[in-house]
Amino acid sequence: MPELAVIVPTYNERDNVLPLTAALRLALKDIDYEVVFVDDDSPDSTAEVVRRLSFEDPRVRIVHRVHRRGLASAAVEGMMATNAPYLAVIDGDLQHDETLLPEMLRLLRAGGLDLVVGSRHQDGGSMGEFSAARVALSQLGRRLSALVCRAHLSDPMSGFFMLTRSYLNDVVRSLSLIGFKILLDLVASSPRPVAIREIGYTFRTRQRGESKLDLLVGLEYLELLLDKLFGEWVPVRYMLFGLVGAVGVAAQLLLVVLLMNAAGLLFGRAQLYSSIMVIALNYTLNNQMTFRARRLHGWRWLSGLVLFFCACSVGLFSNVVAAGTLRKLGLQLPLASLAGIVIGSIWNYGVSSILVWRVNRRR
Predict the structure, then answer these.
(1) Domain residue spans in the chain?
(2) Cα dist. 33→41, 336, 360 in Å?
(3) Which of 206, 228, 216 is nearest to 180 (CA)?
(4) Is CATH 3.90.550.10 what the domain over 4-230 is classified as, yes or no?
(5) Are 295 and 288 within 8 A, CB to CB?
(6) One digit per residue, pLDDT tens: the chain, 363 residues?
(7) N or C: which terminus of the chain carries fewer CB neighbours within 10 A?
(8) SS3 sequence, the chain?
């Protein structure tokens, strides 16, 4: 059994597989280790490159996932696929400094620590050639992490760290497994204080392939924070559904004013047309954000839109009926209206989950 398993989540990293394994071979030459690549069915055949390499080097393994996405879940699945007592996570793009792995292992071997984290904000660390915008976003993420983090971390956004098997066993059943920031999930999920040591490293510039950072990465980070803060009481997907609904309310108010003032429509027509446009907007946003794992395309997108319109029509009816009934029973107008909105949104969310985006599960 190897002492150390290096977990490498990948998506479209075929050109980095050989350079990374060569770098790990050099850095870990005195350590009994294995490398577990966890690939989310990359269209560039990353998994096949790793599979061929595994025939030459038995320390290289592949976990090939189909219809599953996400760095956090990939990292944990890789950890659970090995028996090694020490587990490292490193990106597959060579931007992390693999030469620090022996020092991380030495610190964990000494005992008393659960995690050793590679930090860009410790002595000897650097953000590398990050743009000013990415530095600002990273700093914002660090501040927000304080809402859920149970330990002080200078770099909670880091994707480069090592932990003990015993610590993983303590937290694995409490993990959210949302998005890219598995380190924050690991620390925020701990039922006890976490013993952490950070060591500085310089974030390298990607040489091959394309960055996976986009708007959805930021959304998934927000989703992780919401899940850790409120997930015990409200499903995080429902919170996103409600957030999209709030955007729709604001958009409809603006559209009604524009249609009445700019197009000269009467209120009734402006309300009708704006409602149709906002339902289409909400459907598009939910397809891209709330239900992105079951995202609809092509004809399924169109049929899903029709179903969503039907669901929202019934939801609107239930909203009005519930609010009217509660008002007649003596509930104050704002509370009756709010109750109607909540009932309608729960209906819309439930039907959307079961009928609209369920269609995409069959591939």
Answers:
(1) 4-230, 236-361
(2) 25, 62, 40
(3) 216
(4) yes
(5) yes
(6) 899 999 999 999 999 999 999 999 999 999 999 999 999 999 999 999 999 999 999 999 999 999 888 889 999 999 999 999 999 999 988 889 999 999 999 999 999 999 999 998 887 776 666 656 666 666 666 677 666 777 778 888 888 999 999 999 999 998 888 877 889 889 988 888 899 999 999 888 777 756 655 566 667 777 777 777 776 777 778 888 888 888 888 887 788 888 888 888 777 777 778 878 888 999 999 998 888 778 888 899 999 999 888 888 877 777 667 767 777 777 776 677 667 677 777 888 888 888 888 744 444
(7) C
(8) CCCEEEEEEECCCHHHHHHHHHHHHHHCCCCCEEEEEEECCCCCCHHHHHHHHHHHCCCEEEEECCCCCCHHHHHHHHHHCCCCCEEEECCCCCCCCHHHHHHHHHHHHCCCCCEEEEECCCCCCECCCCCHHHHHHHHHHHHHHCCCCCCCCCCCCCCCEEEEHHHHHHHHHHCCCCCCCHHHHHHHCCCCCCCEEEEECECCCCCCCCCCCCHHHHHHHHHHHHHHHHCCCCCHHHHHHHHHHHHHHHHHHHHHHHHHHCCCCCHHHHHHHHHHHHHHHHHHHHHHHHCHHHCCCHHHHHHHHHHHHHHHHHHHHHHHHHHHHHHHCCCCHHHHHHHHHHHHHHHHHHHHHHHHHHHHHCC
Locate 32 and state its tokens.
Answer: 């009994």
